[in-house]
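Intended use. Records like the one below are meant for learning the mapping from a protein sequence to its folded structure. Do not use them to infer anything beyond what is encoded.
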Amino acid sequence: MSRNAKINALLLFVVAALAVLPLALGLGDHKEEPFTGADSEAETAITEIRPDYEPWFSPLYEPPSGEIESALFALQAALGAGVLAYYFGLHRGRRQGELRALAQRDTTTSTTARTSQSTENTGNEGTTGTTGTTGTTGTTGRAHPSESASEASAPERT
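Structure written out for the chain above:
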């Protein structure tokens, strides 16, 4: 199992534990509505502290039931997750495309260089000769790299 797979499995386990532990430990048993949102918890706390508190504004839309409110919240979360996934996927795809294009360009460049070198080598066959007294020029007419410059520029002897 790779390192990334282990990390993903651990994160999945932690998320599952966060979802199951509150239910298993009975953390909401003493309340009438055990797992209500933070908004209703805050509203309850405020009315206990200051019963005459007047809110600054009211909601634009009040859903007829808690189930509809939960469904709208889930829809909002799903749309947000979809937008984020699209954004990150788009940018990752662009980056991978750029890397593939660079790799393809590099392989095309090296293939072109090899092709032109082999064409150069095939076109100059028959020019094999010697330079100086010891080295041979090979098939391209160039001196061997181990030969000195004076040997490479010396006139050919027959």
